[in-house]
Amino acid sequence: MKLLTAEQFFQQKQNLTDQTNYRNVDSAVLDIIADVQKSGDNALVKLTEKFDGVLLDELAVSEEEFLEAEKSVSEEFKQAIRTAKENILTFHANQTEQSWFINQPGGITLGQKVTPMERVGVYIPGGKASYPSTVLMNVIPAQLAGVKEITITTPPNSDGKVSPYVLAAAKEAGVDTVYKVGGAQAVAALAYGTETIKKVFKIVGPGNAYVARAKKWVFGDVAIDMIAGPSEICIVADETAPPNFVAADLLSQAEHDEDARPILITTSNEVAEAVQAAAYEQAEQRERKDIIQKSLSTNGRIVLADTLAEAIATANDIAPEHLQLMINEPFENLATITNAGAIFIGNYSPEALGDYAAGPNHTLPTSGTAAFSSPLGVYDFVKKSSVIHYPHQALASISKDITTLADAEGLSAHSYSIHIRKDEEDDA
Amino acid sequence: MKLLTAEQFFQQKQNLTDQTNYRNVDSAVLDIIADVQKSGDNALVKLTEKFDGVLLDELAVSEEEFLEAEKSVSEEFKQAIRTAKENILTFHANQTEQSWFINQPGGITLGQKVTPMERVGVYIPGGKASYPSTVLMNVIPAQLAGVKEITITTPPNSDGKVSPYVLAAAKEAGVDTVYKVGGAQAVAALAYGTETIKKVFKIVGPGNAYVARAKKWVFGDVAIDMIAGPSEICIVADETAPPNFVAADLLSQAEHDEDARPILITTSNEVAEAVQAAAYEQAEQRERKDIIQKSLSTNGRIVLADTLAEAIATANDIAPEHLQLMINEPFENLATITNAGAIFIGNYSPEALGDYAAGPNHTLPTSGTAAFSSPLGVYDFVKKSSVIHYPHQALASISKDITTLADAEGLSAHSYSIHIRKDEEDDA
Fold it and tell me: Helix/strand/coil (H, E, C) string of B344-388?
């Protein structure tokens, strides 16, 4: 891991995202989208054969496959899913929003009506790994929002099967509409609909570069959660932080992906040195050692800060997906954190706790986008409508201000729609 | 205006948006963005000369220009701006969100911290028209959210000036950072920064196709409000609706743009006929008669519904930007409205009231996107961070569930970060 001062770190800061620089992927993605728009299910079957190496008879996961999956997973796993589900429900229940109305003098009523989206799609990645936790993290907030139809898509493996863990999690969450489609073709199907897959109004869930770019392209025709980039952990540690804990947490992020960014910011030279040593020592013992070592050496950073204030300012500048505060008085410093997807407080709140079971969402803004984005939440699955009611006299009282502004903007038909109501005698 | 049954309307429904079909505009937009990324202010000056026909000495509006603008607008206009400002403030104050925390047994603390974005950019269109109301509608929610730095960009006219109405509205709203840049180059400058214009974290405000596509491209590097398409009004009217009011309101939408969509859905044949006649009769008298007539004949629709339920189902399917309920018992039917940007209730609540002065935002989801998007609001200018704190024993109690899930997902470094804490003796 590279050792830097806060100033050096800031000077070497990379631009992590540039959404205008994906022309090669985009070209392939646009072809796939056009194919699905034109040929629907046929395109999905053909593209799944091409990319996943399996010719499917049915896109939908059958009831039998669900039963088989449920039988194949352990009781221990089911119990873990139930614990996670309960904690996710408890936390996210605090995010539900109510419609509100206010009355103003003269019989005026204004308000904000909150309505769930009708139908949403959840993308669950496939491939070598399996993501049952992602099923819960995406489905439960949508259900709490009141979304009635939830569709999951996930790529099949070469046997035409879907991870039993994913199916068991879907069943536990109460979703039984699962399609064996992945990649940009799944995003296109969810965005525009096919004979089998109904068009949805929002697409959420992580995926590879093709999934991310497809989501970017269909954004505007449907809503999307975010365009996920490389993910990161940033640990702010003082001399009280146990170096072997810090190292283990950096490694838990590093094992995701060679592009993952494990960053330690510390005010303690001793902690910096001890973490550096412990990280490489621990890496030797981990299964995903190659990925971890690549991530550590390429993207790992240890930033030496002169003061805690400098450490926190650096963290805010990074706007990390995961921020761990392993310092003496973490709660006292919470107010100074302005940019972070999730904030883990103290020595016993590692990222893995939030990834699986504490309750808050693990779908978090990556690559610095926490400066302007939020964790996935119930708020992602509702939309608001303003409500406006003015009686005749109330409209008359404000008419002059409206027509003055409309005339200043050169919109005289707007003015006329006010004038015509002033001239009328009747009231309502 | 074309007269249709609800069934015919549904069958002829057009796909209003397809975000994958703008390759010509995109190519020009990407060149502009690359130019601004590379050459900063120089690119802005050069592109402003090219597109707006004026060579600027200074990108920023000077204090003198502000003073000049203030002198040139009427007292009446200033009063109208103050009325609008007060009503927008009153309504949007209801949207502010607080951080919250919950305590769970075992010393667990979970929460959601709400933080304003640091810096946002507001795009105000220029050209022939002037949009002082748009300044208020975009700036005030950001201020209520707690955003400290707000930057406005707007294209200059060929004299190198900016609309005095826009400047007076900006001054009244308390924003004095205004740059004379428009088009895709303004979006690029806000997204990536130049020597003069600081990078922002969210870009809001309406614009032409180049602005909309530039916003789509930079989305992900910064947040954006929405990608605006053709806008619409949908009036649901029964036999109690005054046809001349209905016609005037359809025309107020039609005058915006030839692509604007004025739609009446009515259960009354008499109202349908009377509105059809009144619309063309009124159009003759309006200044923007040509635009209005084009919009009416191309995109105008009168849908005859058999029942109010069918009328409302049709409106929900359209998911209109503006929905007017001019029916006998509008409040009683409010719960059945699921998709609309703003809902105007009764015969004296025309769209123009909401456009300027009632208080709710006039930046609304267009082209059917109200099915998954909300009006611009205070919530657009904050982001949330999850907060997670577990003490040692609380983590120990949930350890097994976490490691079971991590192992199912093949992420053993996640498991290790939990195991290492179980083995430790100390507590914190």
Answer: EECCCCCHHHHHHCCCCCCCCCCCCHHHCCCCCCHHHHEEEEEEE
